[in-house]
Design goal:
299 residues, 3-stranded antiparallel sheet, 9 strands, Protein HflC, Band_7, hydrolase, membrane, peptidase activity
Length: 299
């Protein structure tokens, strides 16, 4: 029969073995990479996820993120080559490609962000200081971001960091400069609008003058044609009257007198002060229009 002391010793040994076994294993997740440090000295780098072993009690495992990390850079003023001041807002994406070098040179993500911010600001000033404002804002923006990323990546390599991307979110003039530019653009647009209005007014006046001139010419030509037509009509009328008079002078005289009676003797209070034997009333006394014959004197 086993003694109680042997059982207790066995339990203690099993407990110690469990502790030793637990302290000799560690796991690495898919988003991390591990650095094994023994008494302050790195001994191994584990990049693949899974279960791994280390020396119990004397090895320390430091987990380092292997995902792409964000670096938000605060806005800063940069002077372009044409001496224009720019407010640049940029950000970067990076990852830790060498955990050992990263641990030996920087040691933490917070310290890496501080160091990369300094390097990114220096790269922005170097690259953007070589080009003009228009190149930054419009013409060469994509190429400039590539140059900044390459410079930042070369400088960050000594810290075991790879810069994946650098983007300029905004590059604009300072607020006071922007207001001056907007005011100048507004003044320029107003000047152009006034010029267009003046040109439109001049064109309108030219069209109106041309239309008035053409209308005057058309009216004058119409009046001339009307006068000519009226003259031809009057001439034809006079010819007809003359021809009628030549055929029957008495009927023509009678017709002219009847027309005069119709025109002169209106129903609305027409008054004449004439002698009864006036030529105007000759058809009243005699239908033939001839004056009555004088009576022969008595012997």
């Amino acid at each position: 029969m086993r003694s109680p002391v042997a059982g207790i010793v066995t339990l203690i040994l099993l407990f110690l073995a469990a502790i030793v076994g637990y302290s000799s294993i560690f796991t690495v997740s898919q988003t991390e990479q591990a650095l094994v440090v023994r008494l302050g000295r790195p001994v191994d780098v584990v990049s693949e996820p899974g279960l791994n072993f280390k020396a119990p009690f004397i090895d320390t495992v430091i987990s380092i993120d292997k995902r792409i990390l964000d670096l938000e850079n605060p806005s800063q003023e940069v002077i372009a080559s044409d001496q224009k001041r720019l407010v640049v807002d940029a950000f970067a994406r990076y990852r830790i490609k060498n955990p050992l070098r990263f641990y030996q040179s920087i040691g933490s993500i917070q310290a890496a962000n501080i160091q990369l911010t300094t390097l990114l600001n220096a790269a922005l000033r170097r690259v953007l200081g070589e080009v003009t404002f228009i190149n930054v804002v419009r013409d060469e923006r994509e190429g400039l971001m590539t140059r900044i990323r390459e410079q930042l990546d070369r400088e960050a390599d000594q810290y075991g960091i790879q810069v994946v991307d650098v983007r300029i979110r905004r590059a604009d003039l300072p607020e006071q400069n922007s207001q001056a530019v907007y005011k100048r653009m507004q003044t320029e647009r107003e000047r152009e609008a006034q010029e267009f209005r003046a040109q439109g007014g001049q064109k309108s006046q030219e069209i109106r003058s041309k239309a008035d001139r053409e209308a005057t010419v058309i009216v004058a030509e119409a009046n001339s044609t009307a006068e000519q037509t009226r003259g031809v009509g009057d001439a034809e009328r006079n010819r007809l009257f003359a021809e009628a008079y030549g055929r029957d002078p008495d009927f023509f005289a009678f017709y002219r007198s009847m027309s005069a009676y119709e025109t002169g003797l209106r129903s609305n209070d027409t008054r004449f002060l004439l002698r009864p034997d006036s030529e105007f009333f000759r058809f009243f006394a005699n239908p033939s229009g001839h004056p009555p014959a004088a009576a022969a004197p008595k012997p």
